[in-house]
Structure to design on (341 residues):
């Protein structure tokens, strides 16, 4: 598909601007709440009640909503997530459809990488532009403790396969959890560098199903930087090229590392994201306690203008910030896997 330069210049008819003037250009779409592992910071220990298949938006429905948001509302970036997006059957077929939307600038995927070995090539062919892979540890024992499953080897093979398939700018995401990440940080940084990948550490957020999160479990950005400078020497912040990106980047000795201080230095003021859950609800924030269900409307024959109104309704109720550090903070009803990270 050839995208003409003028396409990118014409302003959207229905821009998604909230009460604080934030313009929404980035959309995260969850394609499933199911997953092949059970990370303690996300999934419950016991079997979760997943959405029945009939409750999931179909590829047609996802494509319709995405096209509408890109064509009319100025969404330029779409990230596919989950649950584990690669457990959704024929995901590359959805990627093909989305990659065909004129005016869409970026199409990316977040995955735990376990199934990537067999999918990377198809995803690349289907038009996926970028991949982020979650990797919290290089130790099979720690992986087992964190995910309640085995499979580190598969993730590492998945990463290798993404590289071999020609993906550029592959990013690794590592969660920063006290008592676990301290011993992993330096090895992960070295692993990323030696494979030419970018690694970002993300402060652990209160989105776990078991609701065990406590503030003291967050290994924060300053602590991460202290560990890195102790091991690698001088840490130097790299000025940000793109202010909408949540990561602060650093040169750490010979390496480059990103830190996302989602808890201690929230980037809410610059947030440009909107989310659609696997069961078809639109959310303006990970931590929102309100959401707008689109699925019923779509299945009852809503017109494009009616759907556009629902998106606007969602965007105007967006709060100024997630308020994790406020007294009144309450963890959202949906845990991470049911929202889409
Ligand atoms: N299953 C895929 C994966 O793990 O990459 C995609 C979905 S997962 C929910 C997306 C990202 O959310 C992962 O990088 C994961 O580490 C992160 N995540 C999950 N629970 C989190 C939490 N409580 N706080 C911060 N990040 C979290
Ligand atoms: Fe699955 Fe991703 Fe949640 Fe881990 S973080 S349980 S891989 S959805």
């Amino acid at each position: 598909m050839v995208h003409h330069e003028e396409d990118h210049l014409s302003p959207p008819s229905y821009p998604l601007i909230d009460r604080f003037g934030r313009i929404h250009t980035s959309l995260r779409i969850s394609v499933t709440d199911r997953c092949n592992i059970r990370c303690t910071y996300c999934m419950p220990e016991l079997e979760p009640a997943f959405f029945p298949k009939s409750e999931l938006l179909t590829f047609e429905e996802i494509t319709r909503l995405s096209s509408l948001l890109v064509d009319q509302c100025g969404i330029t970036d779409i990230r596919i997530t989950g649950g584990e997006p690669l457990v959704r059957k024929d995901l590359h077929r959805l990627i093909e459809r989305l990659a065909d939307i004129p005016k869409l600038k970026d199409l990316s995927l977040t995955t735990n990488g376990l199934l990537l070995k067999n999918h990377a090539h198809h995803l690349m062919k289907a038009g996926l532009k970028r991949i982020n892979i979650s990797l919290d540890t290089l130790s099979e024992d720690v992986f087992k403790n964190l995910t309640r499953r085995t499979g580190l080897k598969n993730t590492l093979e998945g990463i290798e396969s993404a590289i071999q398939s020609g993906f550029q700018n592959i990013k690794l995401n590592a969660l920063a959890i006290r008592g676990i990440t301290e011993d992993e940080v330096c090895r992960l940084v070295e692993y990323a560098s030696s494979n030419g990948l970018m690694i970002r550490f993300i402060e652990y957020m209160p989105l776990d199903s078991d609701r065990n999160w406590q503030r003291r479990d967050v290994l924060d950005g300053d602590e991460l930087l202290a560990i890195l400078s102790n091991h690698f020497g001088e840490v130097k912040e790299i000025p940000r090229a793109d202010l909408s990106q949540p990561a602060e980047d650093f040169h750490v000795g010979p390496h480059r590392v990103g830190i996302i201080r989602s808890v201690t230095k929230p980037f809410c003021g610059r947030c440009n994201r909107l989310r659609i859950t696997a069961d078809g609800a639109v959310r303006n924030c990970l931590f929102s306690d309100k959401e707008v269900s689109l699925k019923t409307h779509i299945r009852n024959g809503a017109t494009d203008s009616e759907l556009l109104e629902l998106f606007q309704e969602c965007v105007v109720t967006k709060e100024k910030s997630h308020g994790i550090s406020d007294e009144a903070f309450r963890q959202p009803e949906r845990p991470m896997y049911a929202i889409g990270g």
Q: What stands out?
A: The domain at 26-339 is CATH 3.20.20.70 (TIM Barrel). The first strand starts at residue 26 and ends at 30.
